[in-house]
Design a protein that fits this description.
- The radius of gyration is 17 Å and the shape is globular.
- Helix content is 41%, strand content 14%.
- The chain contains 9 helices and 8 strands.
- Helix 3 packs parallel to helix 4, helix 4 packs parallel to helix 5 and helix 8 crosses helix 9.
- By secondary structure, the protein is of the alpha/beta class.
- The structure holds zinc ion.
- Zinc ion (ZN) binds next to loops.
- Zinc ion binds next to loops.
Length: 258
């Protein structure tokens, strides 16, 4: 069985000491492809290096994370994103979006940076990988406004309700990224996901964060995608093989990877 981890930050410092082992363990557990969303210009080099080392397994995205949108540096960051997309091959624009948990004062510039990066994605025909935290309505309003038949993407780490999920699938070519939260007791996400067609779901770990049960508290790794897939199989009442097959197909479609 093969799995794709569609959202994993393996280039961060939490993996400095043992990154080769982490990648090898993922591959040994069937996670043959790992998609890497960028954070900011400061993480670009380590991300690109990892992807060059494992060209069959690690694939980079380009974007600036909403938590790194700062008034004094955003122009420089957006220019970096644009230049990199013009120069190198990326599978998506990400990770982009809105975060109102850490800093509400930057909402206006977060919105601007989000729109600018969606427009870049449209120009270069790339899918978008969206981060929302306490900002689902604000973010999807922007996507709904700019959406057209060419735009596609994923709301990563989906934790909303059935109405939120429907709003995403109504966009046309958008998916829900399902991660460790599905395995958390009392998250309630299992009841929502029961109602959503698996045709709209892709798997992710968001490593090193959001480690699934039974490893909560430890550093997350791409190999734990298996624990998320097992939980999804249980929630949907279908086999693990079928979960692997369908979510892989969905991810391959969205990110244009064969
Ligand atoms: Zn992320």
């Amino acid at each position: 069985m093969k799995f794709i981890d569609t959202h994993t930050h393996l280039f961060l410092k939490q993996f400095d000491k043992d990154i080769d082992l982490v990648v090898e363990n993922a591959i040994a557990n069937g996670v043959s492809k790992m998609f890497l969303p960028n954070i900011s210009s400061e993480t670009t080099n380590s991300m690109m290096e990892l992807c060059k080392k494992y060209p069959e397994n690690c694939f980079p995205m380009m974007g600036v994370h909403p938590c790194d949108v700062k008034k004094e540096s955003i122009d420089k960051e957006l220019l970096h994103v644009k230049k990199m997309i013009e120069k190198e091959k990326f599978i998506a624009v990400g990770e982009i979006g809105l975060d109102l948990y850490w800093d509400k004062t930057t909402l206006d510039i977060q919105k601007e940076a989000f729109e600018t990066q969606i427009k870049l994605a449209k120009k270069y025909q790339l899918p978008i990988v969206i981060h929302v935290r306490e900002s689902f309505n604000e973010a999807i309003e922007i996507v709904e406004k700019i959406n057209d038949e060419c735009l596609s993407g994923v709301f990563h780490c989906f934790t909303g309700d059935v109405r939120d999920a429907k709003r995403i699938t109504d966009l046309g070519s958008f998916y829900l990224g399902i991660g460790g939260v599905l395995t958390f007791k009392n998250s309630g996400l299992d009841n929502t996901i029961k109602e959503i067609d698996i045709a709209h779901l892709i798997l992710e770990t968001d490593s090193p964060y959001l480690t699934p049960a039974p490893f909560r508290g430890k550093r997350n790794e791409s190999k734990y995608i298996l624990n998320i897939a097992e939980k999804l199989a249980e929630v949907k009442g279908i086999s693990l093989e079928k979960i692997a097959e369908i979510t892989n197909k969905n991810a391959s479609n969205l990110f244009n990877i064969s």
